[in-house]
Amino acid sequence: MFELTEEEQNRIQEAYSELMAGLPKHLARTDRELIRKAYLFASKAHGTEKRKSGEPYVLHPISVARIVSEEIGLGTKSIVCALLHDVVEDTHYTLEQIEAEFGTRVMSIIDGLTKITGAFDSNSSLQASTFRKLLMTLVDDVRVILIKLADRLHNMRTLDALPRKKQVKIAGETLYLYAPLAHRLGLYNIKTELEDLALKYKNPEVYEDLSNQINRSEKISAHFINKFIEPVKQKLEEEKFKFEIFGRSKSIYSVWHKMQEKGIPFEQIYDILAVRIVFKPKPKTPEASQCLHIYSLIASIFKEKPDRLRNWVSRPKANGYEALHATFMGPHGKWIEVQIRSERMDDIAEHGFAAHWKYKTGDTKEGEVDRWLKKVSETIKTPESGDVEFVDDFKMNLFDNEIITFTPKGKEIVLPQGSTALDFAYEIHTEIGKRAIGVKINHKLVPLSRALNTGDQVEILTSDIQSPQIEQLSFVKTAKAKSSIKDTFKDLRKKQIQDGQKNLEEQLKQLNYRPQASVFRKLFDAFGVGSKEDLYQILGRDEISLDSIKRILKKRSKSKEVRFWNLQIFSKKSEQQAIDPGEPQEGKGKEKEPFEFQLATCCHPIPGDEIIGFRNLESIQIIIHKATCENAIRLMSQKGNLIVPTKWTSVKMLAYLARIHVSGIDRLGIASDLTNTISKELNVNIRSLNIDAHDGIFEGVFDLYVHNTQDINSLLFNLSRIKGVDSVKRVEKMEEN
Predict the structure, then answer these.
(1) What is the dihedral of CA 506, 509, 510, 516, to 10 degrees?
(2) Same domain, residue pair 193 and 257
(3) CA–CA separation, 67 and 192 (whole Å)
(4) Could you give phi then psi for residue 689, rounded to 5 degrees?
(5) Are residues 70 and 139 in the same domain?
(6) How many domains is the chain built from?
(7) How far is it, in rounded angstroms, from Cα 565 to Cα 27?
(8) Of 483, 501, 526, which closes a domain?
(9) Catalytic residue at 89?
(10) Partners of 520 in the β-ladder
């Protein structure tokens, strides 16, 4: 084992000195000594160990401790745990030794932070199992999650040292679970940085392009922001407010997400910059009143947009966030969003859960975060779902947008946006959900599947002979409702799967088919399922006849897509060493090929899209997704070990289905101009088209066979130049007609 160089030892000492310098000035001497003890313990334990980047490993826990202290604002025990968080996992030291040196509470937190080790069956996900164990400690001690988020943030900041495959896997996992969790705990800055870094490693070209565009936009917008701030600043000074006022730009990820969600280009994102006002509250006046007073002062200078007023002061967000957001027409006709916060609100917005508890001192009132933790506790205590299923259910509890509903007696029930009446019933009590037969919303009888809106008064009708129905899983939204219904049918599902597997094996034998990948793929497509267990369950219900199976397997694929592609995957031994799967495949593929590729129907990737492959453990098939696909992000977060980094290397024919949406001002001949541009000028084959015109506006949807993303980009550009066309965009999610 090599010794650390003098330069490396100096770096470690410098990092430790910066950690100690950043501690609160009032911190007791005994606390500082405990932190030093933990630092020395970690230094000795990690010794000369190095990270993938080649730097001494102990620099990582020191960096995590600084994030815990300076960016989250946690205390001595959390800093100690951050310094020790990898000791048990990566060195010969045990939890018992940690307990002997630092006490039971520190040992308990370290245990929560230690990854699960040991054997897992082929259907288990190590990532999901680790995350589940982590969440088990959430209600007992939330510091486990906060330190884990700090650990994840530092890992993301140093992701350059890892190979591309691991970068994509970690970025997907971060985007799917850790960024929403940071948001739910009110850690806005950490959530924002995690999202931006995840986008940087998943879509580096997109990240770089947007970063440059935002920087240019900031320089242009700065002039308008300054002209807006000056009169506001003068007005607040006249009213004797002590305050800070400054411009703040949207994060790169939030801009990208808005572009994807609304299908609009960067130029149509109008709120890149916002103005934030953080004021010192005047004594003997409620903070909420002062926020509204500042709002009225700005409204006396600039015209407000009434439908954009967001009052999270009277009703804080589910993560404890408080602020007043309003939008005003600034100089030169530019809409500008203004965020108004007190110093306390700003502290909570920046430091989240830690600040929430700081201001809770002496207050016994249950807050939004407390209520959420209670829900998390209920979810965690719910029985024995699989780890992946558990993580999916838990993610439902990370909702941002919420609705406020009421019982007949006026009790307030807060639910995720999109929740149904049955979710409401389960939220009141599990037994009410199980016995629900109907519902009255605002005194009107409606189905249990009806989605609720803020302000609805909901009365659940029950019956002692009613029991949960499997169909209810298709419309409930909350984790509590889903897990309760699933538990009811768990034993039944197990029996149906066993019966279905037996039935299918017998039927395939009669039809002279072997249970191989191509057979299952046809059955999956026919019945709309994604796993063998789901397929077996359908068969186990005796809903499908032998003739149906026979027809499905004999039927030729409807797809007109001719798949000539050459994909390149990377071996596990080296990210640099490419393995060529062979000559381009045609149609059904060749059994002799080492890998069988299939393009995912959820996102329809085409050459030029950044893609990722997922290996099916039960076959040699690899499913190709766009890297931005929601399903791909979910799979990366749960089963990262099945990722197959993939890229296009050559394309032989016009073969890929894509959909575009066009809209604009209707006129005589517009349909002809559109189709001529597509089929004649650009030589693109049209599979189907639908153009609808009403009230002088037309909308068109075209399904086309294209060669690659260059074809798409050229097509969008040329169509946008047609007279009357206002918007042209590629549709990312395609549902088969």
Answers:
(1) 110
(2) no
(3) 15
(4) -145, 150
(5) yes
(6) 6
(7) 63
(8) 483
(9) yes
(10) none
Q: Which amino acid is at 733?
A: K
**Any domain includes 678:** yes
Same domain, 331 and 219: yes
Spatial strand order in the sheet of 458-462:
444-446, 436-441, 458-462
pLDDT by residue (tens digit) across 139-189? 567 788 889 899 999 999 999 988 888 888 888 888 888 888 888 777 888
Residues in a beta bridge with 406: 412, 457
Residue 560 falls inside a structural domain: no
Contact 553, 526 (CB under 8 A): no
627's torsion region: left (phi>0), alpha (psi -120 to 50) or beta? alpha
User: Are 337 and 274 in contact, with CB atoms under 8 Å apart?
Assistant: yes
**CA 227 to chain CA centroid, nearest Å:** 37
pLDDT, the chain, mean: 79
- Angle, in degrees to the nearest 10, between helices 387-396 and 630-638: 130
Domain extent at residue 533: 487-554
- Which one-letter amino acid corresponds to residue 634? R
Which residue among 8, 49, 90, 487 is the active-site one? 90
With respect to residue 424, please indicate whether it lies within any of the assigned structural domains.
yes
My answer on whether 569 and 631 are in the same domain is: yes
Q: Which of 554, 574, 601 is the last residue of a domain?
A: 554
- In this structure, the answer to whether residues 379 and 465 fall within a common structural domain is yes
The answer to whether 397 and 376 have CB atoms below 8 angstroms apart is yes
Phi, psi dihedral angles at 551 (to 5 degrees): -60, -40
DSSP string, 511-562: TT----HHHHHHHHHHHT-SSHHHHHHHHHTT-S-HHHHHHHHHSPP-----
Q: 516 and 472, same structural domain?
A: no
What is the pTM assigned to this prediction?
Answer: 0.65
- Domain identity same for 167 and 33: yes
Q: For the chain, how far is it from start to end, CA to CA, in angstroms?
A: 63
Q: Which of 89, 506, 583, 692 is catalytic?
A: 89
Instruction: Confirm whether 90 is a catalytic residue.
Output: yes
Helices (H) and strands (E) counted in the chain, each on its own, are: 28, 21
What confidence tens digit (pLDDT) does each residue in 531-586 have? 788 788 878 877 666 677 777 777 654 444 444 445 554 444 333 333 333 333 33
Look-up of token digits 């045609």: 586
Distance of CA 238 to the CA centre of its chain: 44
The answer on 213 and 345 residing in a single domain is yes
